[in-house]
Design goal:
The protein folds into two domains: 287 residues, 3-Layer(aba) Sandwich (Rossmann fold); 61 residues, no CATH class. It is 35% helix and 11% strand. The protein contains 15 helices and nine strands. Helix 1 links the parallel strand 3 and strand 4. The two termini are 23 Å apart.
Length: 411
C-alpha cells in the first residue's frame, strides 16, 4: 500500500478445524485497531491512500474476504453457507484475535459492509465502533425491487442463478466484464488507482475467485436472508456507535416507499461513488403524509399551505425566498379554496355601508382562524422527507439501531 507507513502482509488460517480458510491481508500503524473490509469485485487494495492515512494514528488491518483477492476459496457448503456473511464475519473476528485485538473498530464498504452488519449482530462484544458504506438491508432491497433497481443492479439477479451459468457467461471476457462493472457504478473506471485495478483484475481472472464471488451473492439471496430474519425475530439490535455513509453519485435515484424496518440511523452523503447523481435524500425514508390544513380547512397538504415541507424550508433560507414561498403558499390556499371549497357559489352581496365595512375589516384583523400562524410551520412536522440507502443522507456519526439485514446498493 502507498504511504510512509510500512504495511506487512500476512496469511492467517482461521475457522473451526473442519472449515479452515486462509485470510490474506496487510497490517500497519499503531493502536487503536481498525479493520477495513472491501466490497465486490475488489480486494483490500481498494483502501490504498486511506489506509496509509489512518495508519498514522491507528493499527490498520485490511483483509481480503474469503473467496476474494488472495484469501482462500472454501467449499460452497449447504445452502451456500460457506460464503455467508456470518462465515465471513467469523473469519475477520478470528483474524483480529490472532493479531492480538479483542475489540476493534470496523469500516466496511459494499459486501464488506454487509459482513460488518452481521459482525455487529453476531459479535457485539468485539466491535467498538463501525462505519457502513453504501448499503441498505439485503432483505429490504429484494422486497422493494422495481424495474429501475433491477436495471441498475442486474448482477444481483444474474449472480444468484445456479452454478455454473453466470460463471460460464462471464468466462468469455472476464476482465472486460470487470471493467464494465467498475466503470458503471457512478465513479468511472479511472477512479480506481492503477495498482488497485491491477489487483482486481488478477483476482477476477481466476475462475475459482469468480465462482466464490457468485457464491457470495447466492448466499445473500438465501441463507443470509434466513439469518437476518432470525435476528429480527429475536429483536437483535446494533449496540456499537455506527456511522452510515453513501455516495451522491449513485446508479439509480432513490426509491420512495416504506422505511427499512429495523433500521434507525441518520446519515450524510459525500460526493462519491457507486451511483449516479440524484436528488438529496435522508438515511431513512419517512412516509410523505398529506396532512390537512387544520386551521384553514382547505383540505390541502400542509406542505402546500406552508405549514411544513419545502416552502417552509425556503422561507428559512433567505428573505427573498421566504417572501416568494409565503406568496406561493398563500396563492395555492386561496385559489384552491375558491375552486374546491365546500360551499356553492352565491351571488356577491350588496356593498355594505362604510361603517359596516370598517367593522368587518376590524374583525378580519383580529384572531382569525386562518392567520399567518398556520403558515409558519411551527408544529415542526416536516412531511417532505427524502430517502434512499442507500439508505440511506447518510451520515450520522452515531447511527442508530439496525436489525434488519444488510444493505443494497452495492456491486
Amino acid at each position: 500500500m502507498p504511504g510512509t507507513v510500512e504495511f506487512d502482509p500476512f496469511d492467517l488460517t482461521v475457522g473451526p478445524p473442519e472449515e479452515r480458510v486462509v485470510v490474506h491481508g496487510v497490517r500497519g500503524g499503531e493502536v487503536p485497531p481498525v479493520l477495513l473490509l472491501h466490497g465486490f469485485p475488489q480486494t483490500h487494495a481498494m483502501w490504498g491512500p486511506l489506509a496509509a492515512d489512518l495508519a498514522r494514528d491507528h493499527t490498520v488491518v485490511a483483509t481480503d474476504l474469503r473467496g476474494y483477492g488472495e484469501s482462500g476459496r472454501p467449499a460452497d457448503g449447504e445452502n451456500h453457507a460457506g460464503y455467508s456473511f456470518r462465515a465471513m464475519a467469523a473469519d475477520q473476528v478470528d483474524v483480529m484475535a490472532r493479531l492480538g485485538f479483542d475489540t476493534f473498530a470496523v469500516v466496511g464498504h459494499d459486501r464488506g459492509a454487509r459482513v460488518t452488519h452481521r459482525m455487529l449482530l453476531d459479535h457485539p462484544e468485539r466491535v467498538a465502533q463501525a462505519a457502513l458504506l453504501d448499503i441498505l438491508p439485503t432483505g429490504y432491497v429484494y422486497s422493494h425491487t422495481d424495474r429501475a433497481l433491477a436495471t441498475a443492479y442486474y448482477h444481483w439477479f444474474l449472480f444468484i442463478q445456479p452454478a455454473d451459468l453466470p460463471e460460464r457467461l462471464i468466462a468469455g471476457d472476464p476482465v472486460g466484464y470487470l471493467h464494465s462493472l467498475l466503470g458503471g457504478w457512478g465513479s468511472g473506471l479511472d477512479a480506481h488507482p492503477p495498482e488497485a485495478l491491477a489487483s482486481y483484475e488478477r483476482a477476477f481472472a481466476d475462475p475459482a475467485a469468480r465462482h466464490a464471488m457468485m457464491e457470495d451473492y447466492r448466499a445473500g439471496a438465501s441463507i443470509d436472508l434466513e439469518h437476518d430474519a432470525a435476528s429480527a425475530a429475536a429483536h437483535e439490535r446494533i449496540a456499537a456507535p455506527t456511522l452510515v455513509l453513501w455516495g451522491r453519485a449513485r446508479c439509480r435515484r432513490r426509491q420512495r416507499g416504506e422505511p427499512a424496518r429495523g433500521v434507525a440511523a441518520r446519515g450524510r452523503r459525500p460526493r462519491t461513488g457507486h451511483r449516479r447523481r440524484g436528488r438529496r435524500r435522508r438515511a431513512l425514508p419517512r412516509r410523505r403524509a398529506a396532512r390537512r390544513d387544520d386551521r384553514g380547512g382547505t383540505g390541502l397538504p400542509r406542505r402546500l399551505t406552508g405549514g411544513s415541507g419545502r416552502l417552509a424550508r425556503m422561507r428559512r433560507t433567505t428573505p427573498i425566498r421566504a417572501l416568494l414561498g409565503t406568496l406561493a403558499a398563500l396563492a395555492l390556499v386561496l385559489t384552491t379554496a375558491a375552486s374546491c371549497g365546500g360551499a356553492p357559489a352565491t351571488p356577491a352581496p350588496a356593498p355594505a355601508p362604510p361603517q359596516q365595512q370598517q367593522q368587518d375589516g376590524d374583525d378580519r384583523d383580529g384572531d382569525d382562524q386562518d392567520g399567518d400562524d398556520d403558515r409558519d410551520g411551527d408544529d415542526g412536522n416536516d412531511t417532505d422527507s427524502g430517502n434512499d440507502a442507500d439508505g440511506s443522507d447518510d451520515g450520522d456519526d452515531t447511527g442508530g439501531n439496525d436489525t434488519g439485514g444488510n444493505d443494497t446498493d452495492d456491486g
